[in-house]
Structures are given as structure tokens and as C-alpha cells.
Design a protein that fits this description.
With 59 residues, the chain is mainly α. 88% of the residues lie in helices and 0% in strands. It has one domain. The chain is rod-shaped, with a radius of gyration of 24 Å.
């Protein structure tokens, strides 16, 4: 465990680095979720548009 951070790091430094890594990971995940949500919304809108066109065409 000590070798991972170097022998001379204090516990506070280790915690700070760990927090930074975790925050970065959370940020990345949030942006991925946002991208997925946007793509899903676009797909649903496109499908809704197709259905509306089909309904109009039949009348």
C-alpha cells in the first residue's frame, strides 16, 4: 500500500488524491449519462415523428 503512493505521503495527501480520482470518475460518468439521455431523447422524438407521419398518411 505504501509503495502505491510513495513512502513519504501523509494520510491526508492520500485521501486528497483518492478524492480527486473519485470526483473525476463521477464527472465522467455524469457526462456519459447526459450523452445517453440525449441520444435516447433524440431517438424517441424521431420515432414519434415517424408514427405521426404514418398516421397522417393513412387519413
Amino acid at each position: 500500500m505504501r509503495k502505491l503512493f510513495g513512502a513519504h505521503t501523509t494520510l491526508e495527501e492520500r485521501y486528497r488524491r483518492n478524492d480527486a480520482v473519485l470526483a473525476e470518475e463521477r464527472e465522467r460518468q455524469a457526462s456519459n449519462h447526459a450523452k445517453i439521455a440525449k441520444l435516447r431523447a433524440m431517438r424517441e422524438a424521431r420515432e414519434a415523428g415517424k408514427l405521426a407521419k404514418l398516421r397522417k398518411g393513412r387519413k
